[in-house]
Amino acid sequence: MNKNVQIKLFLGFILILLATVVMVSFASHYILTREFNDLIGDENFMRFREFDDLEEIHFFSSIKMTFALTALIGTVLASIASFVFSEYLTTPIKKVIDTTKRIAKGDYKTRVDVDSEDEIGELCKAVNKMAEGLEETEKLRRELVSNVAHELATPLTNISGYLEAMHDGTIKGEDLTKSTLKLLQDETSRLTLMVNDVRALSSVENPDIKLSQKHYELKPLTDEIVSTMKPKYEKKSLDLSIDIPDGFPKIFIDKDKFSQIIINLLSNSIAYTPKKGGIKISASDTDKFISVMVEDTGIGIPKKDLPHIFERFYRTDKSRSRKTGGTGVGLAIVKGLMEAHGGEVFAESEEGKGSKFTCRFAKM
Ligand code: ADP
Predict the structure, then answer these.
(1) CATH fold for the domain made of 130-204
(2) Alpha carbon nearest to ligand 1 atom 7, residue
(3) Is 170 helix (H, G, I), strand (E, B) or coil?
């Protein structure tokens, strides 16, 4: 089947070649005879008169022989060239077909070797790009499944352990039963939180995520978001300040998604800042961007963890051991939402001193 194009190309070239040989033979035969007759009839070319009939026949047959030989050698050479050229054209196409078949079978690591810059080279590059995308998606899918399984395993093991102990009578007495039920409740709340986070993460990572962006006044919007978090930061006696001047330029965002970004960052600052610490939300305006910063005087993030905190399910060792630690997807959601806005988020932090998260929105 995949030989078809090559055979068609080859036969196409041969057909053109035969047509050319036939046309040149006919044309040259008639033109040569006519010109020769003209010449011998012309008094300016008397020397042709020296030829007798036999010589003329010999002359014509040697010319025809030369033509035939030239046509034969030309045909052989052109056939070889057509074969090589059609092979050259179809080899990368065959490679593309083989590669896409392997991709379809799940081998996302496979690539086509490209060394040409023409349209076929472009096709090979496009196939390689598609394979890269699929490989990345497959990697993320595997990671997500294994992370979710890993994260769900701990609370499920705990729940099953408590239930088993209650069943076989290891946990007895009203107080013990009550405290165990509380632990069971905590574990199931954690499971619910995790499932909700994974759901939120998968919707954020959906490439078809839809934003409904409008221009908003930043200060009132931030006040509104912060007010919903009041009970949480007041419980820890944290000093929360908003440093956004009146008349600050409007920001072009999806209100709900923006709220989610700020809530996630604020929740972290509240969780990782010891009592009586401080949190500040500020904004800056440059030619191209509007940046919104959330900073705290909390425990900070170790240098080795800083490059990874936006990865899904990543938690620093310290936060892992904390009972209050989240599921490790809050910042991955922030990153996904910032990318959906065409912006970016980055973090600066010093252990023991605090952290600062900057969300940079392109100006519209
Ligand atoms: P989590 O749900 O665990 O908070 P996130 O994705 O929101 O997950 O954060 C990832 C990790 O980054 C956290 O577990 C924590 O170790 C660290 N981190 C995030 N924000 C802060 C902060 N403001 N201060 C200190 N550490 C932070």
Answers:
(1) Helix Hairpins (1.10.287)
(2) 330
(3) coil
Per-residue CA distances from 276 to 227, 239, 324 (Å): 18, 7, 18
User: What is the per-residue pLDDT for 358?
Assistant: 98
Beta bridge partners of 242: 281
What pLDDT does residue 42 have? 54
Distances (CA, A) of 48 to 53, 55, 60: 11, 10, 13
Tokens, residue 48: 């042709």
The 10s digit of each residue's pLDDT in 146-176 is 888 888 888 899 899 989 988 888 888 877 7
Measure the CA–CA gap between 298 and 237, rounded to whole angstroms: 13
Residue with CA nearest ligand 1 atom 23? 269
Task: For CA atoms 116, 120, 121, 124, give the dihedral sign.
Answer: negative
C-alpha to C-alpha distance for 176 and 297, rounded to whole angstroms: 39
CA–CA distance from 19 to each of 24, 86, 202 (Å)?
Answer: 9, 19, 63
Instruction: For residues 147 and 32, give the distance between their C-alpha atoms in angstroms, rounded to a whole number.
Output: 85
Cα(347)–Cα(269) distance, rounded to whole angstroms?
12
User: Atom 11 of ligand 1 has which residue's CA nearest to it?
Assistant: 315
Is any ligand 1 atom within 6 A of the Cβ of residue 301?
yes
* Lowest-confidence region among 59-63, 220-224, 275-279, 311-315: 59-63
Model pTM above 0.85: no
Residue 300: CA count within 13 A, CB half-sphere: 10
State the average pLDDT for the chain: 86
Q: Is the CB of 297 under 6 A from ligand 1?
A: no
Residue-wise pLDDT for 183-241, tens only, equals 899 889 988 988 888 888 888 888 788 899 999 999 999 999 999 999 999 999 999 99
Q: Does domain 213-362 have CATH number 3.40.50.10090?
A: no
Token readout for 128 is 């390689």
Query: Contact, 280 vs 357, CB < 8 A?
Result: no
Q: How many CB atoms lie within 10 A of CB 199?
A: 10
- Domain spans, the chain: 5-107, 130-204, 213-362
How many residues in the chain?
364
